Amino acid sequence: MRRAIHLDNLTLGYERHPAVHHLSGVFQEGSLTAVFGPNGAGKSTLLKGILGLLPPLSGAVRLVGIQRRDLAFLPQQVELEPDFPMSVLDAVLMGHWRRRGAWGALDRELRQQAVAALETVGLSGFEKRAVNALSGGQRQRILFARLVVEDAPVILLDEPFAPIDAQTTADMLALVHRWREQGRTVIAVLHDLEQVQRHFPQTLLLARRALAWGPTEQALAPERLEQARSMSAAWNDHAPWCRKDPP
Q: Of 119, 152, 155, 175, which residue is least crowded by CB atoms under 10 Å?
């Protein structure tokens, strides 16, 4: 059975106010998909719904061939506590928690995996450095190394390149492409149109509802982008819960 994430007429929101309306579609195994749209379009909300952090107001998220523990997540603007005395290696070793638990023993093999992950993201030799001594781009590399250690078949990224420099962005995009070559499913919320067009073959154009979902060139056609902008100008953040199915 191929792994997939099915969205079945999914509506998500907060305090019964909808943020994502009647969304249906499938993230297929091995796909590399950008979730793109204006601010307030429900992009981060969608990732929370897929992860089970936000229960649906209606509809469902169905995981086929996978379980929630198979999903790795890099949330938006993750901060490694700057005042906490943590080494780079310790920060990456936290990626084993998903399978080992917070109190699971970390043997030599797991430590070697973390060292190899640091090499993958360009931080070889940084194992003993203090996290709070590193730049923002280097800290983001640590978080990507943690994802490497998690070794999940599905990876969800929420604005992963927003806080970092151009070189780090290029290196981490190369890692994302490597994940795709390995057959992993990657879903990334992004705000950079050129980045999406250059690196992501599939796009979900979201403006609280799906305006397009498919090949990026088609999904981000100028008329669809204009439709998304027009819709965002008319949003009512206090709208009641949408109870009816779409026509």
A: 119
